[in-house]
Amino acid sequence: MNNQSEHEPFMRRALALAHGVWGSTHPNPMVGAVIVEEGHVVAEGATAPDGGPHAERLALLARGKTPRPGATMYVTLEPCSTAGRTGACTDAIIASGIRRVVVGATDPNPAHAGRGFELLRAAGLEVITGVLERECHQLNLVFNHWITHGGPMIAAKVASTLDGKLACRTGESRWITNEAARADVHRWRRLFPGIAVGAMTILKDNPRLTARRPGEPEWCPLRFVFDGLLRTVVDKNLPAVFTDEFRERTVVVTTPHGGLGYVRKLRDMGIQVWTFESPTQRVPFGDFRKRCAEERIAGVLVEGGAQLISEMLRARQLDYLFAYHAPVLLADDKAKTIFSGLRPERMEHAVRLADVIHENFDGDLLMRGRFVYPEKLLIDETVFGARG
């Protein structure tokens, strides 16, 4: 049974198991594993939360006994070959007596990639790789970046009309995209450990910044509010992220220009405050990224506003983009645009996306991919002013 198409139904089941633990395993990858005997699934497993057993070990535990001769394990990601906190999965598979392992994606960690396959083959196991490889690799978008770059994936989410507008000239923006597209946003919110917005988005929209999906309890990631002057604390009517039941999951990211009194006020309410030294009111994005790495926050989804996203873009601090487009035209040059602050003079100066994926949500389109910055990024200093 070496025809890869014959393996796909079992790998799709392993993928479904991995999707079942969506967003709950950071900073570890989401992995699904199934054990198949005589063409039937007899045991399953998916990665436990950080510090718990991996999918392969849980599948073996679920089997409850030694797999039959000829049993095959299907796993979405190359089994780990280092001990870590839970022991190497390659050791557990070899000890189980399983003689064949079918794998989706290779470990993205350059230090480990392919080593698990080598150990399994050296022990006499048959190893088949690359079954539904793209789907298995894409499953762990955040983890793949974390493990290869040693820091968080900073992604931007934008929703716009076909002509790139995110609001009418009046500021009205609800709703550009349809219900299906907005539901997909909540799916990605559940994946990323953190969500970030700027102060003006908080003051204008008062969002909850939680993942709300049918049939699931409301879930709250870390909610980062970029507010270099602490404008969100001035008004007596404080925003929801400072007062709701998840307020301890809110982190205000600021500078010393905001004032110590407001910092104390926030901390007294149970709000976390990250203060970064800066010559201006703008938070240094590189320092924010470094702090996230220190806190083992594997990814942050930046949902607005346009100025924050544009500033991060021109600082080369965005790694990935989720761009939702609705079949709507405003055709108004005074309507608000998504991105600004660059001054490309030739197409070679443009920022591009790589590894692009397209998805359709009842007519609304999602284009998502990895940012690729030109060697020379030309900045328009008249838009936001020099960063200092």
Give a short synopsis of this structure.
It contains 13 helices and 16 strands.
Write up this protein.
The structure is a single chain. With 388 residues, the chain is α/β, with parallel strands linked by helices. The chain contains 13 helices and 16 strands. It has helices at residues 4-19, 55-63, 89-96, 115-122, 133-139, 141-149, 179-191, 199-205, 240-243, 260-268, 285-294, 306-314, 381-384, and strands at residues 32-37, 40-46, 72-77, 100-105, 126-128, 153-160, 165-167, 194-198, 222-226, 250-254, 272-275, 299-304, 320-325, 336-337, 352-361, 364-372.
Features:
388 residues; alpha/beta; nine-stranded mixed β-sheet; five-stranded mixed β-sheet
